[in-house]
Specification:
Blueprint lengths: L5 E13 L5 E13 L3 E5 L6 H8 L7 E6 L2 E2 L5 H7 L3 E4 L13 H16 L4 H14 L4 H4 L9 H13 L5 E5 L7 H18 L2 E6 L2 H4 L5 E6 L2 E6 L1 H6 L4 H8 L42 H5 L5 E2 L5 E2 L14 H8 L1
Parallel strand pairs: 3-8, 3-9, 6-7, 7-8
Antiparallel strand pairs: 1-2, 1-4, 4-5, 9-10, 10-12, 11-12
Amino acid sequence: MPSGDSLLQVKNLVVEFPAGRGRKVHAVSDISFDLGRGETLGLVGESGCGKSTTGRAIMALPRPTSGQVSFEGTDLSTLTAEQLREIRPRMQMIFQDPISSLNPRRTVGEIITEPLKIWGKALGLTDPRAQSAKLEEVMTAVGLDYETHADRRPHEFSGGQCQRISIARALMLDPELIICDEPVSALDVSVQAQILNLLEDMKGRYGLTLLFIAHDLAVVKNVSDRVAVMYLGKLCELASPDVLYENPAHPYTAALLSSVPVPDPSHSLKSHAGRITGDLPSPMDPPSGCRFRTRCSKAQDICAQAEPELQDIGAGQYVACHFPNLPTVIAESPRASATTAS
């Protein structure tokens, strides 16, 4: 995968957890990707595939079992705890549950300014007046009223407002990278759009780079520059949203897309959208070869014998499959057929 001006590089990342009796949970298994400066990379997949673990491992919460995470060329795995602590203000995280991630005993103003209590000296923001000005600036930017909201506590706010508080807290240290761990999955659909638009606005205003983790392909379509699809700890496809949604090369991606609801009663499912059969294998005992083979209608003997590597099939699309749907399928899509017929 081309690196270009990469802010973050993840190489051969492995995260395993002990499960007793000598067993391990293979949460993330040898994945690699780059994140360009100013880019939004959507990381999607069903629950339990390792998305959130990947995001936390990048932040060293916990440290990866093996592999390399480089931030602006600095390998975070080689840093001491103190060195890692010094670089963390430039990497912030927004958590999935906006309410439980906030301290219920503190006011909104205290929650958002807490990073400055720790890092204000390093940033030159020790003056209480300067901190208050920064607080007002950030609260206003995320759509919170400084005068009426700063002295209230989290339980007085809705889920969407609590997520705005979390975003404001992440912005206080002027980070370069923000990892968004399913920031809208706990919110109503009407509120999801507001938070997504807010993240886009903040990205442009503060020059952010985002790793956007979600389990819904529809959510990441309009906010991501590229989309990476995970299954059972492995990356199975990586492409731009236009390419991925028009021509999913991996059977798992096609199945995920077929599950996205379309607000059109006359719309029929795409012909390439297969169905997923069977149960999700255990991450303690993943299948040999391709991990999706036990649920794939295209699986053959080689799928059990050899693990497919992420290969470039053109147009910046990478897929880990022995029998991918090649880009020529685009010409046979319903959209292309309708254009030809007209």
